[in-house]
Write a structure and sequence with these properties.
Elements: H1 10-13, H2 18-27, H3 33-64, H4 74-97, H5 99-102, H6 107-149, H7 159-175, H8 183-193, H9 202-208, H10 227-235, H11 243-248, H12 252-273, H13 294-309, H14 321-339, H15 346-401
Helix pairs in contact: 2-3, 3-4, 3-12, 3-13, 4-12, 4-15, 6-7, 6-10, 6-12, 6-15, 7-14, 10-12, 12-13, 14-15
Length: 402
Amino acid sequence: MPATDYQGSSAAASFGRSILSLRREQVHSMDSPTQNHHFASANERELELEAFQKQVADRFSDLSSAGSDDLLSLSWIRKLLNCFLDCQEDFRVLLLKNRSLVIKSPLDRLIQDFFERSVKALDLCNAIRDGIEQIREWKKLIEIVLCALGDNNQRMIGEGQFRRAKKALVDLSISMLDERESTAAAIAHRNRSFGRQNASSKDQHHNHRSLGHFRSLSWSVSRSWSAARQLQAIGNNLVAPKGNEIVATNGIAVAVYTMNSILLFVMWTMVAAIPCQDRGLQVHFSIPRHFMWASAIQSLHERVFDESRKRDRRNACGLLREIYLMDKCTKFLAELADSVQFPLTEDKEAEVRLRVRELGQVCDVMKEGLDPLERQVREVFHRIVHSRTEGLDSLGRVNQND
């Protein structure tokens, strides 16, 4: 979605002048030591706020420089989470340094609002971790295919190996069905996810018996929970601060808005990439152009959204690049398994082995990247909890002292 210019006051239109230059005008003629100390503190805060904005811009500019082959890959997603953790830590330090301002209106309300949005992200972290577990289940089925067709010491790939691989490919295809494709597919997928089987149908029992061991992949959220609605709740009423709010908070309102926007974008991107319950990307996302980090985040948002609209990815259960490559390789092998005649010709067998090698490379990337990704998601969860607890405790102590 395109960025829109913010039609607020002139103070909000340019952060560089808004609070900071106004503060200089207010204290320029102050001569007492106390007043000079206040002026120095204001200058220090100005530098810290500008540094925070620049760090955010630099980090997301680095992420936006990724090529099409790297965007939404496991390695890129891990960089995104590292970026969030770094921004979150910088923001936490910024609030601690300005603790005396945090308790004052309207900043106290803005901070409380940020904490509430952060809490909504916790369920998303849980759902994303469930999605990572689901990818692991897909990887197990891929390993069966690789085991059946990947024996390079065998002179020829036989019909038995193809039957074994085909069964795993069918199970994988069923498991990867997106719930939006059809009502029937959604019911079958949901029943299988929660371990229920229809004993009245022997055919259904036969088709899904190998998937009966799957645990509920949405155990940490209720069945009615929706990732799309949770994202909408985080982005609800998220608007850039007005000029009077910037002045009243000594510019910190801009940092709060920045972190709110980062939180929304990172959670939105994770939901786009990783399979999770009731995915949906139609979230209002508009950042005023004058923020120095706006163009990088807006560019990434548009690129991710464009990926979701591609014909071969519209019904994908996740935009993670490794899921796309896995789906591409397995579909080819499944089509080949349906049409192949034995014995295989040399050309056909070479083609099969090439696709198997490609699938093996994807499997290796997932094997190396899923565990670190899950640890990062867990770290995001705990960092949000810790920062919120620390912030609320700090507010409580200051209020008690007053």
